[in-house]
Amino acid sequence: MRTEASVAVDTDVVERLIEHVRNDTTDMVDSELHVPISHFVGEERAKAEIALMRRLPLIVGHVSELPRPGDFVTRDLLGVALLISRQEDGSIMTFRNMCKHRGGRVEQKESGHRRIFMCRYHGWSYNSEGGRLRPLPYEDSYGPIDHDCAGLDRIKTEVRHGLIFVDMSNDPDRTVEDYLGPDVDAQIEPWGLERATIFLDKGFDLPINWKLVMDGAIDSLHAQYLHPGPGNVGSRTLTNVAVFRAFGRHGKLFQPRTKLKALVASGEDLGASSKYVASLLMVYPNAMVIGAPDHVEFWTVWPSTTDPSHCSIRIRFLVRPEILSPEMEARINKSWEILSKAATTEDFPMEAWIQQNAQAWPDGTFRYGRNEVSAQHLHHQLARDIDEVA
């Protein structure tokens, strides 16, 4: 079991970053990309993106939220009410939070512990173990019913790296392992997220299209302008110096921390460590794993199902208990203070202004430069999946 806080970064990535630092360069693609502004405000586009997400494995939680058999959480996933429950064998099942009688929710709380879920409309109840329908109130007068066939609808669920993936397509031939691929597995594995716990959990509802939030998070160009000043985000990483690695649909952005530039200038020997490199792994389409020296920021960004100009964000800080100390707690709380200030007073207001402008002028395009490789990757992949663009 690894007890150091930092994790190793691929040597070739660090070598490329050092080369970029020395030459004042960055990773680039062949051409600029134009994305229609209508993709950020149009209802038809929003429906197509939601339909796509409903066909893909999506991360809905972390195993530490369900430590014991009978523990549950509820989620609203793209308009679908879900009930996620830990089973006796340690596995996790997901059910539609929908009574098989007349559609009421069988659990109203966000989390808790239950052996039985009951709809408050007519008293139909279900075992948390497997979701099987229990004896009905007034069953003798209801009529014959097959309890085995009238249980809660199950939705395909897999756990990988401690993250709970739900696949509403129920595709029996696709696994999360296949969907992520070995490269993404290799990037997540060193963090030991299966052993982590949630240190901090924050949610935001914003008048912003979900892709603008993703664009802002995976951008390597704006920090020095939007987050200036000593101690702020813009002073912690270098702007327009980045390496991007594509892993199929997914991808990872690496940026040098400012201390790396100082070490390169001094000629000091340094290791390939997250102490010197900031990283953001995009798990397509809407999740991000952001590596800090001693914890992981885990983001999920969800489009509104009713308004293309709104989204919700969940930010969790994940920490392995074996490395947590009072000193580390103080550092992590300071990290949240910095992130919260940057997000709520700088990033989100800027993205809301962009959204307002997009709604007022929906016929143009947004431009992504050759040096905006990570953002281009996201929009190219959405075009492949939705527009079938090669």
Structure, described:
- The two termini are 43 Å apart.
- The model has no long low-confidence stretch (mean pLDDT 93).
- The strands form four sheets. The chain has a seven-stranded antiparallel sheet, with helices on one face.
- The chain is built from nine helices and 18 strands.
- It is α+β, with helices and mostly antiparallel strands and 390 residues long.
- The longest helix is centred in the C-terminal third of the chain and has 35 residues, at 326-360.
- It has helices at residues 11-23, 43-53, 139-142, 176-188, 210-217, 223-226, 258-266, 326-360, 373-387, and strands spanning 33-36, 57-62, 71-77, 80-86, 92-96, 111-113, 116-118, 125-127, 154-160, 163-167, 197-206, 243-247, 250-256, 277-283, 287-291, 296-303, 311-319, 365-368.
- It folds into two domains: 11-55 and 176-387, Alpha-Beta Complex (Naphthalene 1,2-dioxygenase Alpha Subunit, Chain A, domain 1), CATH 3.90.380; 65-167, Rieske [2Fe-2S] iron-sulphur domain (Rieske Iron-sulfur Protein, 3-layer Sandwich), CATH 2.102.10.10.
CATH class of the largest domain: Alpha Beta
The helix count comes to 9
User: What is the global morphology?
Assistant: globular
How many separate domains?
2
Report the CATH architecture of the largest domain. Answer: Alpha-Beta Complex
The neighbouring-strand order within the major sheet is: 2-10-9-5-4-3-6
* Mean of all residue-level pLDDT scores: 93
Task: Report the CATH topology name of the largest domain.
Answer: Naphthalene 1,2-dioxygenase Alpha Subunit, Chain A, domain 1
Query: Kindly, what is the distance between the CA atoms of the first and last residues, rounded to a whole number of angstroms?
Result: 43 Å
Order of helices and strands: HEHEEEEEEEHEEHEHHEEHEEEEHEH
Low-confidence stretches: none
- Tell me the total number of β-strands: 18
Percent range of helical residues: 25-40%
Radius of gyration: 23 Å
